[in-house]
Amino acid sequence: MNHDFDVISAARNWRTDASASATPHDIVTGVYASDVLTLEGLKTRLSKPTFKSLQATLERGATLDPTIADTVALAMKTWAMEKGATHYTHWFHPLTGSTAEKHDSFVSPDGDGAAIAAFSGKELIQAEPDASSFPSGGLRATFEARGYTAWDASSPAFIMRHANGATLCIPTAFASWTGEALDHKTPLLRSVEALNKAVTPALKLFGASEGTRVSSTLGAEQEYFLIAEEYFYRRPDLVMTGRTLFGAQPPRGQELEDHYFGAIPDRVLSFMTDAETQLYALGIPVKTRHNEVAPGQFEIAPIFEDSNIAADHQQLTMQVLRNTARKYGLVALLHEKPFAGVNGSGKHCNWSMATNKGENLLEPGDTPHENLQFLFFTSAVIKAVDDHQDLLRISVASASNDHRLGANEAPPAILSIFLGSELTEIFDRLESGQGGRGSEAGLLGLGTNVLPPLPRHAGDRNRTSPFAFTGNKFEFRAAGSSQSISFPITVLNTIVADAVSELAAELEAKLGAGEDLNAAVADIVKATYTKHKRIVFNGDGYSEEWHQEAEHGRGLLNLRTTLDAVEHLTDGKNGALFAKFGVLSDRELAARQEIMYDIYFKTVNIEGETTEYMARTMMLPAAVKYLGELHAAGGSRAVKALAGELEAATDALYDATQALSEHNAALGGDEVHEKAHHMRDHVLPAMQQVRVAADRLEKLVAEAHWPLPTYRQMLFVK
Fold this sequence. Notes:
The protein is of the alpha+beta class. The strands form five sheets. Strands 1, 2, 5, 6, 7 and 8 form a six-stranded mixed β-sheet that branches.
């Protein structure tokens, strides 16, 4: 059977009834946020007193009044049923990193043999899923099953559609019976409030009016790969682990640099349009789509939103991409490194702070050297990143992201800040006491009168920096493509809240002593930059010279692997920081550390067992069968030697995985830290040896005998 022909034929005939998309006019006028119960939508369905009470919670942070719950629930149910929903679910973010949902019908028996549609305020505000069935890191024992979901009124309810109906999804937090957070949303919401409480007093020192509130904003770019669905299901490694554990490099990869921003293939473009229409209906403001660097790699990016809503929308974006790809005979791969030897995928988090009046606090304006407020908050970010390099690194740590960080496609594991030439010069001049403007931006001439002169930014971009200032925001580029962005943003919000509160206290003291505002801010910015400028680096983050300078010359942390980083999560300074702002208790922090160790161990263990299975049951039999054919024609010593090498490496991998089982049995324990380290130090190297032998063998065995779709097929057949 010619599988390649089948896949190519499918690519040419991908169109289905479901592929018809809305017209541009429909998308603009009728589709956007059509499946979202917006604040304006609620306003038309609620009485004025009820709406004002809810609005006070959403816009001013007032405590939610439970007495309005029944009224809101009725409005929500009526709206959802008008949209075709038959069920509702409390949609939450457990510590798996994915989302969770349990559907309940609106239909309830009325006791007279009939049924009514019912949904009460109690059902809106709280539900009770099984807490023991989700990761808790020791917060809950197996027999302690009670958990609660609590309605998050700040994130709007929405409709998720499927082929035979629709479901009302109510964003919720998830907590244990004892009130401890078992999710990613609760700490994120706490961190948003911590940032508000820290930044608002600082803004008042700069003359902000009463009633000003501050939240963090976020736009998360999403990179992903697309491969033909048939190839996916013929690769046990992709099905079980999300990445290819084997695969010889094809003659052509990304070295011609012709895929980036290239013309998008027709089937892929139709998939993108379909997915974007669904995202528009969910109120997700996707703005950009394009080919990424690697063949078969793409990107979608939204514009800024409040960070809590952006985190919800990011989870929905991943879900829509996965679901929609199947309609077009494709599979969306969100793993950080699905293919060795080509670029992996990240999730760049564009972060800033904004007031409820729409002011971006990291907007430098036309004269950043004169913008005291901008310089104050920027210096607070510099201080935050320097003081808490470890937390930012931990927030993006995972077994999958380890394959990507530090390669020539992603920032190194060393945290540094790129400010650009103009901003760096401004801070340098402030430090030296000169003041004044830095590099002029000016116009960029293009050498021909046909093309207009372009306004030139005063600083270039730096794609090797893990944390870069990009004009009016900071781009945290180290987050992995498959992870929830909630924890990285929780960390960012909290560390910046800490830095701002310290600098604001200094500023208030200076003003209280009669010092002029301009002079006081200049002194604080100068002292902060002088103390923390070691974290600023505008050069090549990939160079070996930088690694040496960062680690040995500047004393910056280089936490190379997930396990190097995660062990620092419960360090005293981190526990004190999260406790100070009420974001995570010591127990909640320790639980997250245990879960990170556990997920690391299980991820690598699944990969190790899958590697052994594929080597023994697919590659070795293929080599033996091919050797039989070659034997009749005189044999091949090279194939025979490599087959022996593959078998020996597979035996060594089995020994490495078995050694852990025997060790645990002897001790009678189940220490997850030790198991995770064993995976990193013994199983991963053994897996690599199996791969080396198998990939060399792939280049010798006839294609008709090789049991797996190759990189050439998966990356280039679209």
